[in-house]
Amino acid sequence: MKVDIQSLDARNQYKVMSSLVVPRPIALVSTMSPAGAHNAAPFSLFNMFGEDPPVVIIGLQDHWEDRKVKDTTINVVETGEFVVNLVDEDLAQAMNVCATDFPEGTNETEIAGLTLAPSEKIKPHRIVEAPASLECRRIAVLQIAPQRKLAIGEVVMVHVRDGLMDPETLRIDIQAYKPVGRLFASLYTRTRDQFEMKMDSYQEWLEKNGTS
């Protein structure tokens, strides 16, 4: 089957892409308006894209119905700061509440029963219940379509729940972390089923394949 994706409208383009590129990590993004109002919204068009400097990218989209710009987008553009709060199984339901299309200016964290705490290096607060939070400063916001922007941020501080990360090796205990991934529509996935594949060096590959 071939899909001429450029011939589809925006909703169907999204349906095709979001159902194939899975699972995706979820960024529960907390921001603060210039006036000091708090906001939180989840985004699954999100991932890390570098380590020196550490960079994350979030796909920001206007509301489908009225094309109004979301509070998160406004705050990122106007303040240049945001926090990526990562989502685990315990945070999933509250994250889903934050996805509700509340009126402009609503503090979703209060409705979802979440706790905000001051960040170390930026003004927007982090969500205490998150297993990890990434304080970010805007590198750039790219307008790639009338209703779509890409926010590129540099991670300037990381908060990790006690017990998740080995302080010496900096490795995460994935069994304790229990992150949640987005599939499509209202489907999500847990990450409890894992398997390991070690990558061989070229010399190891030659030795295994009898060509050394």
From TrEMBL:
Cofactor(s) required, per the database record: FMN
Q: Does the keyword Transit peptide apply?
A: no
Output this protein's name: Flavin reductase like domain-containing protein
Q: Which family does it belong to?
A: Belongs to the flavoredoxin family.
What GO MF terms are annotated? Answer: FMN binding; oxidoreductase activity, acting on the CH-NH group of donors, NAD or NADP as acceptor
Q: Which InterPro entries match?
A: Flavin_Rdtase-like_dom (IPR002563), Split_barrel_FMN-bd (IPR012349)
Reading the lineage from the top rank, the first entry is Bacteria
User: Can you tell me where the transmembrane regions are?
Assistant: none
Keyword entries, A-Z: Flavoprotein, FMN
Flavin reductase like domain spans which residues? 19-166
